[in-house]
Amino acid sequence: MTLAVRRTAFPSRVTVVVLLAVAAGLVFAHRLYRTAEISLSGAILSVISSYGVDVIPDRQTVYFGLGSDTPLGLRMTPECTSAFLVLPLIVVGAVMIALRPRIQSRVLFALGVAALAVVIVNQFRVLTLVGLVQWLGVDTGYYWGHTLLGSMVSVFGGAAALVAFVWLATRK
Amino acid sequence: MSLDLVLGFTQALALTMSVAFVTYVLFIVVPYLRRKPAPLGDPASLEWHFFVPCRDEEAVIGDTIRYLRGTFPIAHVWVIDDDSDDRTAGVVRTLKRNGGVRDTHIHLVQRQRPYARTGKGNALNDAYRTLKLWMGRRADTDRAIIVVVDADGRPAPNCLEVCAAAHLFGNPRIGAVQVDVRMINAGLRQPGVSLWRRTFGAALVRMQDLEFRTAIAAIQMSRGATGTISMGGNGQFTRLSALDSIAGRTGSPWRGSLLEDFELGVHLLTAGWHTGFSLDTHVNQEALYSLRRFLAQRTRWGQGTMQCMRYLRRIWDSEHLTTLGAAEMMYYLAQPWMQLLGTLIYPIPMALMAYRFAVSPAEVVAWFFDGAWILFTVYGAFGLLPFVLWGPVYRARCVPVSFWKSIAYGFGYALYIYTFYITSWRALIRLVRGNNGWTKTRRNTERRVVTADV
Q: How far is B342 from chain A (nearest CA, A)?
């Protein structure tokens, strides 16, 4: 006797609603997201830095280089967070699933990869900034790290995430 | 909602939209620059029918018929007179009589009000039904190719050879082919107007030529990969059997939106036909010198694109379109909406900065000179690059002008594109008001007739 198990896909409408809820959550609970993001930065810095690191979650701020000549605090502002870069991807992903439910799993996978890429790029941006501050000093390091390099990392990281999303979500 | 949140949100959205667009442009420009001519085919293997919709085209239709008959002797020319007020039909009849030796390859499809002047699509449908009757039931509709040409259109002499090639109509799965469009008056200045209008008009014409021959051509080529090459209003080649498959009971393959050419492509693609595009041949048309007429034309196109949004479900439901293809078509249909969004989103960071400057000017000035100017330069470059690069591309592939002139063309093209922000809003307003009808775009030689009570 064989037991046939019918594979049922998760209802796409539920997925769309969940995705849109996540998108709304990113807007209305962005403080929570920024806290998580800066805590992650703090965790990574405490592993790779030989100086003290401290995170103040209420202010979404990480202090690094504590005990060195160049201690500095970085705040994850709404302008710096990756939350709003992930948001358009989620909305586009939700629209795609709503219009073609059979690509649900592919889009979710693409969304996961792209969102992860955006988060990693933003962490890389923070770490680059920290590295430049420690290398060039607070003024020069912050100037180049925040203004130019940070923007370039965002632009190229964003482009890479978009390409990854489109490629993974639309491949046959 | 705090100002910081609004700023962060709008900045991220603006960044995403800009980065998406820059990435898209870089993806389409490379295949365009690398393309090579394809082998030709035998035009005698197919049967060709030119459809020329006309309304008050007395000034140009005679030369067009002579050109089509002289350049393509094997082809039939079907002039669709949409109840013209001038002598358009008379010109066609005279040419058909041919001084006593009747030209059997010239046909006149006459429409009359109230059934005339209801849109280009309806005029083409009338010609389609007339052609079907003329051909009879036993006609080989796979061999018959319909070519839609404007009343002043000039298809290049090699267009039948190119379109008959093995990868185009030589392939039975290809239902329609669009060829490159060029502006016949590029480089020609409008006579009889002031120096300012002449100079501006020439620049506007150049931009239209650049747009069609570079950006639009590159987009069409990239659609070869997504399987979504779309049709244009001029230089549109369609297999009769493909039209039959989408004509329905009313015998109407062309539908009623203001962008009936794009709509035709949607119906063909979702019916399972493949479409092709070629840069190996072209059709010449006249570009507009007048900004007013240009804005009216682009508003109509924008409104037509907005109307076609209703096909989104059909596109995504179609088993014949890949997800990439459906996404590409959705991206195209979203363009006017994204332009509307852009006009709302892009100014917000600037407005907030202006507000901060008003509150504490010294702080903003210090912020700007401390490094924010680099940000402005980077974002400005990303905003302009996707448009400016078409100037040098135009130089490399189309018209050999000096490098600096090509850069100037690129900046001109960036300015030209900004007009779409205006036309998208005009299109939305017309759409909301339910103004879905439209008069044809007047040609450069046409003047508005003004009457006054005495």
A: 14
